[in-house]
Design goal:
Layout (H helix, E strand, L loop, with lengths): L3 E4 L2 E4 L6 E3 L4 E2 H10 L1 H8 L5 E4 L9 E3 L11 E6 L5 E6 L3 H9 L2 E5 L9 E11 L5 H17 L5 E4 L5 E11 H18 L4 E2 L11 E4 L9 E2 L15 E2 L1 H6 L13 H8 L17
Helix pairs in contact: 1-3
InterPro entries: LigD_pol_dom (IPR014145), MtLigD_Pol-like (IPR033649), NHEJ_LigD (IPR052171)
Pfam family, one: LigD_Prim-Pol
GO molecular function, one term: ligase activity
């Protein structure tokens, strides 16, 4: 029998709680749901008012993975759904997770949470910029940290503050709170930074996606600032054999990173980090922290 749980007055059917989703650690679906319930305040800060895309992995990372923007069949009528632009000619409905019941409903589907850089009330007006630092083997997150520190200083020269989080996979994300600006302008500025980083950091950086260019280098992916693109939401679990999380890190941790394992954050690490640091990405949701695009 599927357990029925009441969350803030909403009845939820939570299924297959004993199913192992992350085989390297034996992490079950029940433990995943407990994680999201525990860190709900933090992740909701970064989900609210943003149309949600799901990467679903209901049978774990070794099963079928599929990406969807449409509200899944059976979406409860109390889960917010927004009509948002999909292109210059069409719109589409997407889920917007605004509260704890909606978060737990979505987590029960077994998903990675992905969101754009804009909110539903301001389509294609980005209030943050993202630079995705993706290492090409044998480069690792250690090299990403070197690039991140350079980019931090470069952004500061333009009056912008940068915040770092792990990708939950191999790399690092830099996030910059912005006074809302057209996504096309943010994309152009992000590309200019990637090109400049490639010129300044010798053989360490590449700004183009071609895989033949990337071995041993850090690809500074600026493309996720396009209005149609999304990025892994802070605090989302990733579809990996271990329950790794895309989670914020301090600049001291970035500066001190000496091996890839230094910046691997797992499900069990996050509640304690929130107790110690609070939400290191809280400024992304604070209009007073937003910088003006040059």
């Amino acid at each position: 029998m599927t357990p029925i749980t009441e969350v803030e007055g909403r009845r939820l059917a939570l299924s297959n709680l004993e199913k192992v989703l992350h085989p390297a650690t034996g992490t079950t679906k029940g433990e995943v749901l407990h994680y999201y319930a525990t860190i709900a305040d933090a992740i909701l800060t970064h989900l609210r008012d943003r149309p949600l895309s799901f990467l679903r992995y209901p049978d774990g990372p070794e099963g079928q993975l599929f990406f969807t923007k449409n509200p899944p069949p059976g979406t409860p009528d109390w889960v917010e759904v927004a009509d948002v632009p999909r292109s210059s000619r069409e719109t589409g409905e997407q889920v917007v997770v605004q509260d704890l019941p909606s978060l737990m409903w979505a987590a029960n589907l077994v998903v990675e949470f992905h969101t754009p850089q804009w909110r539903t009330d301001r389509p294609a007006l980005a209030d943050r910029m993202v630079l995705d630092l993706d290492p090409g083997a044998p480069a690792t997150v250690v090299e990403c940290c070197r690039v991140a520190l350079w980019l931090r200083e470069r952004l500061a020269a333009d009056g912008l503050d940068a915040y770092a989080k792990t990708s939950g996979s191999k790399g690092l994300h830099l996030l910059v709170p912005l006074d809302p600006a057209p996504s096309a302008e943010v994309s152009a500025y992000a590309k200019s930074l990637a090109v400049e980083a490639e010129a300044e950091l010798g053989g360490l950086v590449v700004h183009r996606m071609a895989r033949a260019l990337r071995p041993g280098k850090v690809f500074v992916d600026h493309s996720q600032n396009a209005a149609a693109k999304t990025t892994a939401t802070p605090y989302t679990l990733r579809a990996r054999t271990e329950p790794t999380v895309s989670a914020p890190v301090t600049w001291d941790e970035v500066e001190g990173c000496g091996s890839p394992e230094d910046l691997v954050l797992r499900l069990g690490d996050i509640p304690g980090r929130l107790d110690r640091h609070g939400d290191l990405l809280a400024p992304l949701a604070d209009p007073a922290a937003a910088g003006v695009l040059p």
